[in-house]
Design brief:
homohexamer, 144 residues, Thiol Ester Dehydrase, Chain A, five-stranded antiparallel sheet, elongated
């Protein structure tokens, strides 16, 4: 969806990304990178005793992977403004395969560029929504 | 701040985290992990021609690093509910050093556990706010 | 180029990829991953005394990065057959920014799928060809 | 084999490397480093439906790991010229253990240094050839 | 334990760290980082034939992870002097979960700072001691 | 030195390893892997105010890299027993290039295998000793 200029997107435009399997290696690498070694993610003895029963991927891991699943085209994205209503609605376990589904909710023309409001859902192979969020991204207009 | 149980935190409790310098290696590693190689982050020729004039850390990198800067104590955090009003307000460049400042805005007792609403600001060594967000986290109560 | 099915490509079709800056971190990470710590790549005292005068990216690093620069579409690529005439024609130094330019040389219909022969050149920001190669890739046909 | 100077190698000299098990973590790390997240390598649902029936290591991963399995001695290798007839002849699956077998095919004295032509086969624990290639490497002569 | 200034620790003070599960990914990443690809750690065919019967984590991996399990407070640690009687007393296998138990054995006031001698034991989920060591660390005194 | 069987080494045998430059990326990757983000290593503002004046590599980073610099031959090393008198005697800064110098101090025949006591010094490009240690390693005897 981020491979189209502001003027190429319409309210209602939808896109589905490719998918990626979240592995044990991903959780270890994200814990390492972020420094977040909370035992729910990285201690299997601890995780086994929680309501989840096993290690769970970090919420920010899932959000971060989502940004890389979405196709982006150089020159299109000007800046990432922010997110609203980010909700982690289901856990992502080792071996789950996630994808991103997105829909343009609003467009706001700012002259030289525009801002799109996108509803993003991250779903797993069981079609459960793991995370939903509203994204605001500044997009360039198509060069003449 | 996430090293205290629900009943140990008060509305208005504040905390400042340790700091971490964001390096070129961090940007490369986050691009690799997330799969987000947008050239603003990873192509120095491209970045030089944008309004930023140089490569910029991914917004999700900054948010992810923030989660690891905050002290967490095993057993305290039950689940990460979500975020609201996440705004990227200043770029993070290679060599910037960031920290997290947080304050408890609200507490909501749910019986067996509680939910805290936290205002989080990520600041750099020039005391600029790079990102602000409202976090909702479910915390356990202190074991008897 | 690998985002198009066999029947969507023509002999002579050309494509240019996005670009990526090769950093010191990339060389360290590739040395680590591959296990190839040859000092031309990872010992700056040693490299300073060679004809290159500084550390040089591994040839296989450059080839590996190239595979990720090329757009690929799930379902299109069936298998990677091989390469011919792979030649490293210029060194890649820390800070160089590389891209891939490709052209379809031949198409061979195999019935259920097809094999394309691609001339690939990896170029840096000075438009020098760092590596040239002939690739053979099996592509699926567009689903009905 | 690359731990011997040009004048220490003979046509017909053979060598077998140590072995390395290719893990799920290796595939994730190579996808991350290279940026090649093609779902045959990184989406287990997708891979299950291909002719391979499971995730397959990237061809370039196998070639890259091979370069690190071969013993190299500082000062011996002057430059990596290129490869010919690179063929991926069998898939490498998660858990396979690969090694490199090499034989000097030709030597060409260039005065100050020499070029050796090497036949390289990458084999797994079932002695299947996963990749074969002809390598051309410039080697220094033994210092007096 | 390293989150307390020299004057806040007493001989006999004890601490137990959080725990971390050592995964196959950790062993691959440590082999990559350190360059130590000894097949006992990274070749499952080889490891199966040793007295351990399976791959074993590097001793230095276990020691390195231990340093990150211990809580440290910015400003407290002045320098890491060294270690004595470092003994690897039990193997760490893929899937084991380790923690650090430490006790202050001696304190030596050096005027502006102090040196503490710490007995450190790294234990797994079966309460076996995998490594024991005596550490010497220079700690700052509490700022007035 | 660890590429020779117990009966191939003599008391007094010496060896010098290849060298490796320690980069900013190495420090970030080791902080990530180990979880040790102590600001002396990872916060350049903090480090600038210490007696070192800049970021310093972790002691365990230096020791870990040393294990990978030493040549090891599959089948030779049976087990790593431990270390004594490990002393960090000079800091390793970003850009320093380190090597390992080792000498066999003692040999002890245990029948089926033997234990060697090795004096190891890690030196930088200025020939300063950064770390010295006594290692004890169990080595196999040469197969008949």
């Amino acid at each position: 969806m981020l491979d189209k200029y502001f003027d190429e997107l319409e309210v209602g435009t939808r896109a589905v990304s490719r998918s990626r399997t979240i592995t044990e290696a991903d959780i270890v690498m994200f814990a390492a990178f972020s420094g977040d070694w909370y035992p729910l993610h990285t201690d299997k003895e601890y995780a086994a005793k929680t309501m989840f029963g096993q290690r769970v991927a970090h919420g920010m891991l899932v959000l971060s992977v989502a940004t890389g699943l979405v196709d982006m085209k150089p020159g299109v994205v000007a800046a990432f403004y922010g997110m609203d209503k980010v909700r982690f609605t289901a856990p992502t376990f080792i071996g789950d395969t996630i994808r991103v589904e997105a829909e343009v909710l609003e467009k706001s023309d700012k002259g030289a560029f525009g801002v799109v409001t996108i509803k993003q859902e991250i779903k797993n192979q069981r079609d459960e929504v793991c995370n939903s969020a509203i994204l605001k991204v500044a997009l360039n207009k198509k060069p003449a």
